[in-house]
Amino acid sequence: MNNILVPIGTSPDSHQTLQYGVDFAAEFGAKVYVMDVFNVTTAVGSLANVEEKVAKSSKEHLKEVIDQVDTKGVEVKMATYNGDIIDGLKSINKELGIDLIIIAPKSNDIQEELYLGNTSGRIIKQTEIPTLIVPKGTVFKPAKKILTAFGSGILKRSSILTPLIMIKNKFRSEVSLLLVKRPGYTEDDLKVNTALMDLSSQLTITENGTTYLGVTEYFQKEHPDMLCVFRRKRGFFKKLWEKNTIPKSEFFVKIPLLVLSVKKD
Description:
alpha/beta; ten-stranded mixed β-sheet; two-stranded antiparallel sheet; 12 strands
């Protein structure tokens, strides 16, 4: 794990998420890129240096956030982008190769009832970069127990598991697997990929309407330090997929949530 990206919004708590990202990166010897996105369209006849001024202001904002963090020797670099955040993430990923995005559950949204706001929801929905959602105020600690939940044991490619494997190996985590048999499941769904099975000797199979409901039912039994799910249009976020915002009444966990790339579609 070499490059970790922490998008910074307007939240006054941004430094908390960045501190977690820095602490996490320190464990892996990774670099941290702090990113701010703005949207300036310069019309004909307007000041040519408007974008330059906004970019400068954006960098000053990033510096203020970084100054609130104990960087612990971790290399922290700033990145700004004029345009849509998803385009910005794809651009910086193409340029640098981002191994992990670390975000807070809600960003740039004053509706406190939301688990994922519009920005964080779009990052989860519209990118394939592994993402770690860290509840605000969470102080970094090694994840000793990781619950990995899925509705199908089929993997598009084993490399999808790389972030989880790296975390497991670094922290010597105990990984438990939860396979949720959902309505309409196939026998192939029950064939768990060998790379996934290699992560754990503990596989629990349960039946429920969705993977999400299976997790909420099983969660209290395991008391994990981290939850890991897969980003699929018909997977964990099935009932939540049509919208970018996700209310806490529909989904809420108080531990870091690792969302891995698309499995199959």
